[in-house]
From TrEMBL:
Residues 4-153 form the Phage tail fibre protein N-terminal domain. This is Phage tail protein. Residues 393-449 have a biased composition (Low complexity). Residues 521-546 have a biased composition (Polar residues). It comes from the Bacteria. InterPro entries: Phage_tail_fibre_N. Residues 385-449, 495-575 are annotated as: Disordered.
Length: 592
């Protein structure tokens, strides 16, 4: 779009300030390589290089539209050419560059060799305060000086941009322009849509041939093109990726994807759809925004209505579901429930501590609770106090002993067994027990006999009845002091044990021995009495029984206690682990 550049503004200001006329006298046309005519004119613009200027001529016509608008025109007939231009400038009478315009690259051709050239008119509209008075232009602009095509094009573009602001890149009402499969072909349903602000209407169902290969993107190619008496929307079907472009005539095309044909042949709708019915867009918007509800009807989780902002009391009460909470109220409620510096235990991964919370690690003024147990502050412990230890050592008290006494445990006994002591013997002596006797009784041994020897004895003859002995075999024993006796023919004095006399018949008595065998008397017992031998003792030697143990049973001594003395082990101390049973969790504090 044309613009009065800095040098032009300064020129106009200087002339009007000095009450001198503003004199615009010439047009300059240039062909500048790489110039983008869609970009705004640089206000610091200067005259192009001389080799780019293709034409320079005096103003053909000038006139005013309004007191603040004047038009300068350049007419180039068929005698002028041949050249291209894309830059126009207005020069003042003193050579000052006043205004500049960028235009699409245009070809100016002169008539030559029987070939008709073209005539081109270019109009330059300047607008500034009291322009008509400053330039001294008193002639109204002629109709031919007004580029009606430019005006109409600008009107159409303004409408398109306005629609684009409302409907976005694309919008379709209901089923308008929806692609559906119909056997081996496809159909576009009738309806209305907007693409890049251009309104497109499909008056009736349109059949589209199936693409030669699938899957395939289906697009609408939309452009606004001039007709005989108006600009019309031109729509064609394009199969491929959507890319906007400008055609060879300088017309802008907008390509919008509306559907996707899948490998199965089914369609996937890609339109942006709104249920705008016969009542139109305004009704659709009003219905969605619920403008029609009563001002006394408040919204809830189930009903549409007006939404009220909750009060702080309602937020803290947690009972209302018909009002909204602002971020400020939300954080105020959070601060009320969980104030800053409140610490809690985090049972997750330390790297996942939530935003607004931090580990109590001693950083940034936070307490250091790592490897510590929390204790409640109060009379003994002040906030932020630290202390304690994992282990404790008792102080050394030097050599010492401990006295102890067990409590009476009542009558009881102890059982034990000595360890294996190897082969050994024991000496023992019984204590003197004084004069005493023992009684014993043999048990019945069943039917048996005994051999009896009656030793040398003497009876008075008066006590011996008349009798004789028939001796088959008598053993003669020597009696001490009487070894000299002659007892018969078989007596041998050298026999220290005595002699046996056989076949003798003795009719006399006197001192003699008897040897006899008792008959069996059947099962019987004998009573034995061992006489008192006076006070005496017995020595006993217990021979070794080989490697063995002794069982020991200590009988109860009645209720009693034991005194125990623990001897000192010298100066020493003890190390004690004072840690309690624990479960490890991160201690975190709210910081934001």
């Amino acid at each position: 779009m044309p613009a009065i550049i800095n040098t032009g503004a300064a020129y106009i200001a200087a002339k009007t300030g000095a009450s001198e006329p503003v004199e615009i006298t010439q047009f300059v046309l240039a062909d500048i390589d790489g110039l983008d005519h869609s970009q705004p004119v640089s206000l610091a613009e200067t005259l192009p290089a001389a080799n780019t200027i293709v034409f320079q001529a005096a103003v053909s016509q000038k006139g005013y539209l309004t007191p603040d608008k004047v038009v300068y025109s350049l007419s180039m007939d068929t005698s002028i050419g041949d050249f291209h231009f894309n830059w126009l400038g207005l020069l003042a009478s003193d050579g000052t560059l006043v205004a500049v315009a960028y235009v699409p690259r245009t070809l100016k051709v002169a008539t030559a060799n029987g070939i008709q050239g073209n005539s081109i008119t270019r109009n330059f509209l300047l607008q500034f305060a009291d322009a008509q008075q400053a330039t001294g232009i008193n002639v109204p602009a002629e109709t031919w000086q007004i580029d009606l095509s430019a005006w109409l094009n600008a009107m159409d573009e303004r409408e398109r941009v306005s629609n684009r602001d409302i409907y976005g890149r694309s919008s379709f009402f209901g089923d308008g322009w929806k692609l559906e499969q119909d056997g081996s072909s496809y159909k576009l349903k009738p309806g209305i849509g907007y693409v890049a602000g251009i309104r497109i209407v499909n008056a009736q169902e349109m059949t589209i041939a199936a693409p030669s290969s699938i899957p395939k993107e289906i697009c609408l190619d939309v452009s606004l093109q001039k007709g005989v008496n108006q600009a019309v929307a031109v729509i064609t079907i394009f199969m491929g990726s959507p890319v906007d472009y400008v055609d060879g005539s300088g017309v802008q095309h907008y390509v919008e994807k509306i559907s996707y044909i899948m490998p199965t042949g089914a369609t996937s709708d890609r339109r942006t759809v709104y249920d705008v019915g016969e009542l139109g867009l305004i009704n659709f918007i009003l219905t969605r925004t619920n403008i029609y509800v009563s001002q006394q009807q408040y919204a809830s989780t189930t009903e549409h209505g007006i939404v009220k902002r909750s009060t702080k009391a309602q937020v803290l009460a947690r009972a209302d579901d018909q009002t909204y909470v602002s971020p400020k109220q939300l954080w105020a409620a959070l601060d009320h429930l969980i104030p800053l510096n409140v610490g809690v235990f985090w049972h997750g991964i330390i790297d996942d501590i939530p935003e607004g919370w931090a580990l109590c690690d001693g950083q940034d003024g936070r307490p250091n609770a790592i490897n510590r147990v929390i204790v409640c502050a109060g009379d003994e412990y002040q906030p932020d106090a630290i202390g304690g230890e994992d282990t404790r050592s008792t102080s050394s008290n030097g050599a010492h002993s401990h006295g102890a006494s067990t409590a009476s445990a009542g009558a009881h006994s102890h059982s034990g067994q000595a360890n294996d002591g190897g082969a050994h013997s024991h000496g023992a002596s019984t204590a003197s027990a004084g004069s005493h006797s023992h009684s014993a009784s043999t048990g019945s041994a069943g039917s048996h006999s005994h051999t009896i020897s009656v030793y040398n004895h003497t009876l008075a003859t008066s006590r011996i009845p008349s009798h004789g002995h028939s001796i088959n075999s008598v053993k003669l024993l020597k009696y001490p002091g009487y070894e000299w006796s002659n007892f018969g023919p078989d007596y041998d004095p050298g026999d220290a044990d005595g002699a046996t006399v056989t076949g003798a018949n003795n009719g006399g008595g006197g001192a003699h021995n008897h040897s006899a065998g008792s008959n069996s008397t059947g099962s019987h017992t004998h009573s034995v009495s061992i006489g008192n031998n006076g006070t005496h003792s017995h020595s006993v030697t217990v021979n070794s029984g080989g490697t063995h143990k002794h069982s020991l049973s200590i009988d109860s001594a009645g209720a009693h206690s034991h005194s125990v003395s623990v001897n000192s082990d010298g100066s020493h101390s003890h190390s004690v682990d004072v840690r309690q049973r624990y479960y490890a969790a991160a201690h975190i504090v709210r910081v934001a």
